[in-house]
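Example: Rieske 2Fe-2S domain-containing protein.
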Amino acid sequence: MTAVTAEELTERIHATGLRNQWYPVLPSGHVGNGEMKRVTRWNETWLLFRRPSGQLHMIADRCPHRSAPLSLGQHLGDRVACQYHGVQVDGTGTVVSVPGLPGCNLEGKQLVRSLPVQEHCGAVFAYWGDERHPEPPELVLPDRLADEGTAHFLNYAEWGAPWRFYIDNVLDPMHGAFLHGHSHSMAGGAKSARFRIRETERGFFFEKTDQVGVNFDWVEFARTGVDWVDLEIPYQPFAGPGGAFGIVGMVVPVTDTECAVFHWRTRKVQGWERDSWRFLYRMTLEERHHEVLEQDRVMLEGMPADGDVGENLYQHDLGVVRIRRFYRAEAARQAAALLG
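Written out as C-alpha cells, the predicted fold is:
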C-alpha cells in the first residue's frame, strides 16, 4: 500500500472536515427513544441509536465480524445485534456477545469506533477526533444559545455542496443585499460597502464600516470547541416583540460534495412576548426564512465542485480569504501532526 503524502492527507482533511472538534450531526428528534438512525458524516457511515431511557450512542456502522452494516440489525435496548451473524455491539463499540460462538475471543473487545456525544438546543453533537486526540475539548455553546433569555428554533437541512461553500457564503455578508435583496428582512440598505476584519480571542468579526443595523451588516466566526458563525438581521415592527433577529449557524461535512447545515433562529425575548414571538415565527416567519435559505442552497449547489478555485476576488471577499487561509493552514497542521 502506497503511503499517503502530507499534501494528500491535507486535502482529505480539508475536504471532509477538521479533526479534534465537536460538530452538530443531527437534530435530536430524528432519533427517538428505542430507535436508531444511519447517517453519513465526514465521508463515513455511522449509526446513532438511543436507549429506551433516552441515552444516545454513536458508533461506526460496521460490524467488527464481517463488516456488515449494523444499521440493518436489531435494536436490543443497550446494544445492537448485527443481522448477518447476530454479533452484538454496545454503545461503546464493545462486542458484548457472539451468539454463534459463546466465549469467542471477540467478546469484551472494543472493536467498533464510538464517538462522544452531547445534546444541546435540539441537536446531537459528536466529537470527531483523530487517534492522537481521543479526549474531546469542552463544548462551549454560542452566546445566543447559552442565554436562557433568548428563544430559538432549529432549522436543519442537507445541501448538495461542499461544507466549505457554506462557510464561504456566510463570511460574505454582501450577498445578502443581492441574492436576498427582495426578502422581508434584507431589502434595505446600500448595495455597496467597505469591510474590515476585527480579530477576537475566539475568532474574528467581518463587518461593514459604513453601515450598521440595517441589513446583514456583520458576521462573527468563532471556535469554542465547535466552529460557529453568528449574525444579526434587524427586524421591522411587524415581526413582533423582542430584539434583533439572530442566526447561529453550523455545518458538518457529509461527503466531499455534501453537507448538513444547522441554523438556530433566535430572538432575545421573555415572558408573554416570548410566547407571542414563537407563535408568530411558526405561523408566518419560518416559511419566509426557509425561502431565504433555499436561495442560498440553490446558488451553492449550482456552483462547480471547484468553485472556490480560480476566482477573481475583491475587497468584499476579505472574510472569505481569511477563513479559507485558516482552514487550509489548520488542515495542513493536522496532517503534519498525524504523519510526524
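The domain at 143-331 is CATH 3.90.380.10 (Naphthalene 1,2-dioxygenase Alpha Subunit; Chain A, domain 1).
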